[in-house]
Structure formats: structure tokens, C-alpha cells
Here is the input.
Amino acid sequence: MNRPRLLSLGSWPETRRVTAILRKETVGGVILLIAAAAAIVWANSPWADSYFALRDFTIGGEPFGLHLSLSIGHWASDGLLAVFFFVVGLELKREFVAGDLRDPGRAALPIAAAVGGMVVPALIFVAVATREGGDAVHGWAIPTATDIAFAVAVLAVISTHLPSALRMFLLTLAVVDDLLAITVIAIFYTDSLNITALALAAIPLVIFAVCVQRGVQAWWVLIPLSMATWVLMHESGVHATVAGVLLGFMVPVRRKAQKKAREIEAGMAEYFEHRSRPISAGVAIPVFAFFAAGVSLGGFGGLAGALGHPITLGIVLGLVLGKPLGIFLTTWTLSKVTRAELDSSLRWVDVLGVSMLAGIGFTVSLLIGDLAYSDAAREEFVKVGVLTGSVVAATLASVLLATRNAAYRRIHENETADQDHDGVPDIYQARQD
Here is the structure.
């Protein structure tokens, strides 16, 4: 009797799709790194005042009583990140409707791992931040997020040939992680709720859903509906980025004429993903990172003091220790409970490397930190913690993955060997025979 396998290869079409996504995320991740570095340098330069003045410059007004007078930094976190979460919504629906994760057995692992990767760092943060007292523990969700663009960028820099199964695991883990994070934001970081505005937000959302279900692609129809949904969600008190996820969920994945076909043709979700992902990875996330990452370190003494603060320390330990422990132990426990074996092409050290890579929290971590605390001092501690934890996690993961580079290259070559030159690696055809 064959035992079930963890992290086995998915289908060839799904692998090609994930590979294409990772290429785009790699470019976006590099831009993100440049934007974050530029913000840190500017915020600690003699011209630091100009950076903070730009970030805090207010744009907008209050037409019809709407609260749209926001700083540029808030426009980036509330507005541009809605584009990022729209892509997250599209990707989630694509994965669970037409991707390999429509199989409950394959979906169970990344979902369980994502939950474990949130619970453990949250517990570590609470244990450490309790020393601060007061409402310091309110930031428990900060170290629970994974930044897929940042993580993939690290892979690109160290030139690691990560096996396809692990690449897919990392991508789906991060996407599910984003869904859990936005759920946490909606439930735990909503201070006041305007029921009327929330109910009104459903009107343009439903109209948007009807339009995309009928195949409408006209930007002059869909963008105003999206903006109306965003504005009303913002007015409701729920973080406006939730509107992005909901809009993504409304987009159909399959073409109606292709529902019974074995190979699903590109539907509306893929159409919007192709057009939205470059904007998300190349503009929305880097601009947010630029305005969110700028923190005045105040020299070595100021940095050392910040690192010793319970909030900062809790974030660093949550990202560096909590994320890999939560993901790795959950995956290992699931293998024991289900008596499943790790795929023969992989080793547990590979899973540990990806788990450590998931400790790179940036975009969503900074967003949650902005929502968790209102005083400037704690916001600075959050930024130092997220930046330090992400850099340490990236460094440790890079060292481990670099030692596995030769093994990854051999696995990659075996997976992509195409002896009959038909465009499909033989290993995928063998699985179907």
C-alpha cells in the first residue's frame, strides 16, 4: 500500500502558471527591496525632514462628508495596498477553484501550515510584549505575515534552484497567509463599525460581480465600481484593503463554455491577474514600502535601544523563530498524523529552509503595525522589528538554502528533463501513465 506524499509535484499546467507568477514576483521583490532601502537611507540622511514631510503631506478632502483627507503614507497603505489584495483575492480563488488546491487533500497542508505559522509567532510576541504592559500585546498579529515578493526576491538573489513543489508550497502558503492576515485585520483591527456604510458597500460590489460574471471588461465601468466599494468600505471602519480581496473573489475563474473541459482556458480571473499583478508588484507594494519603511534609527545607540524594547524583540523573535517553527512543526506533525511521507525528491531540511524564508514579513506586517498602535514611538519600534526580523530571517534562510543549492539544481534538472521535446517534462507525463 502506497503511503500518501507531502509536497509532491502538482500538474504541469499549474507548475507553469506558478513559475510565471514567481518570475513577476521576483521583479517586484527586487523593486520592493530598492524602495525600502531608499526610504531607510533618506530617513536617516541630513534631508530626513523632507522624507517625513512628504510622507505626512495630506491630499484629498471630505466631499459629501466622506473622510478622504489622508496623508500620502495613508493613501499608500489604504489605497495602493487594495490593488495588492485584489490580486491576492484573484489568486486565492484561482487556486481553490481551478488550481491544484481544489483537491482538499492538497489544500490541507498549506492551510494548516499557514495557521501554524500565525499561531506560534503570535504566542511568542504576546509572551515577550507582556513585559511592556498596557495594550502592547495589541500588536500580536504583526509577526504573523509572510511577504511573498520579498521572499521570492531573496531566492532570486541567491540563485537557488528551489524544487517546483516547494515553490508552489511557498506561494500557496503566502497567499493563504495573506487571506488569514486580512481576516485578522477585518475582525481584530476594526475599532468602530459604520453598519450603514458597510451595507452600502455591498451595492457597488454586487454590481461589479454581475458585470464581471457577464464578461464586462470595460475599465470605465469596473474601476468606478471598485472605487465606490473601496470608499464605502473605508467609511465603514473596516480597513479599506478588505474591499480589494472581496472584489477579487467576485471575478469568475472559469469560462462558462469551458467548465467541462479537461484543460481550463484562461477566464476573467486570469485576465485581470495579468493586468493587475504588474501594477501590484511594480507600483503598489514598492510605493507602500517606500513610505512605510522609513524609520529614523538615531545612530547605533538608538538602534540598540529599539532592539531591546519588548515590542521590537517580540516581532523579531516571532518572525525569526515563530514563523519557521510554526510552519515546520505543523508540516511535520501533519505527516505523522496522516502517516504521509515527504516526496522522494525532497528532504526535511528543504522544508525548514522554506519555513525560514516565510519569516520574511514586510508589507502586511507593517500594515498591521500601523493599525495596532497609534503613538509614534511604538510605530518606530514596529518598523525596526519588522525590518530587523525580515533581514535576519532572510539571511538565515539564504545560508541554509545556499548549502542546498547543488541538491536543488539536481532536482530541478530531473523535474524539467524533456527527453521527447514535446514541451512537457517527462516526470509530469509519468505521473499520468
